[in-house]
Amino acid sequence: MIPRHQTVLFILLLVASVLMGGLLWNQLRLAHRRLLQGQDSAPTQAPQVAPAEQATLMAANDADNTVEPRILSLPLPQNPEARARAVLGKLLDLYAAPDAAHPVPGGAGSIAQVFLVPIADAGGKLAPEGPELAVVNLTGAFAAGHPSGLETETLTVLSVCATLNANFPRVTQVRFLVDGQPRATLAGHADLTRTYLTAESAAPAAGDRP
After folding, report:
1. Which terminal residue of the chain, N or C, has fewer Cβ atoms less than 10 Å from its own Cβ?
2. How many whole angstroms separate alpha carbon 182 and alpha carbon 137?
3. Of 95, 113, 98, which is closest to residue 158 (Cα–Cα)?
């Protein structure tokens, strides 16, 4: 037989639990309503569209093994690294087009990141407007799908370097990564272990072709 005072205490605790549960549920319902009202009343901001600017793409041509300038108007962000990625992405979009003079699959998504790193002088100092090293991080899918061959791989590398040089004069050196890691070659031939100088990124003359 349960004592009467324990029965009364149990009933009081049960009633208190029910009341507390009801209050908690009501608070959650009100908080959810305020959240929805806040979302509805928040001003909708239009997506920012980067202004169009002229960019020089140094596009490769397999027919004569050259790199030639193409000036296009592109929406370019202000951030230098995002800007470099956008410019190189458009270059690779040209190569992915059906009528490309230098057909390479992949397009803009093949440029994972571009990092611009200041280069110190002989004394170890960094000048405010000094030279920069561009680190271009390509995707593994781009490297895997790139046509194999010394000329076609070299043209891709040189066109990337020349395009960076044409749009970012402070970039004097370029290094390549694939999926964030060093890689021996692009697709079996073009050396990705070296640092490329943008001043030497012109395509080889006909007599110099390998």
Report:
1. N
2. 9
3. 95
Sole residue written with tokens 């001043």: 199
Mean pLDDT score of the chain: 84
Q: Which of 101, 56, 59 is nearest to 83 (CA)?
A: 56
Region label for 192, one of left (φ > 0), alpha (ψ between -120 and 50) or beta (otherwise)? alpha
**Taking phi first (over 0 means left), then psi (-120 to 50 degrees means alpha), and beta for anything else, what does residue 42 get?**
beta
Strand partners, 68: 59
Which helix (H) or strand (E) segment is 18 a member of? helix 4-41
Which of 46-55, 98-107, 128-137 bottoms out in mean pLDDT, i.e. has the lowest?
A: 46-55
The rounded distance, in Å, linking the Cα atoms of 25 and 19 is 10
**Cα–Cα distance list, 55 to 9, 36, 163 (Å):** 81, 44, 9
Contact 113, 196 (CB under 8 A): no
Chain Cα centroid distance, residue 175:
16
CA distance 7 to 55: 84
**Measured between alpha carbons, how far is 80 from 167 in angstroms, rounded to an integer?**
10
Closest to 208 measured CA to CA, from 38, 65, 59? 65
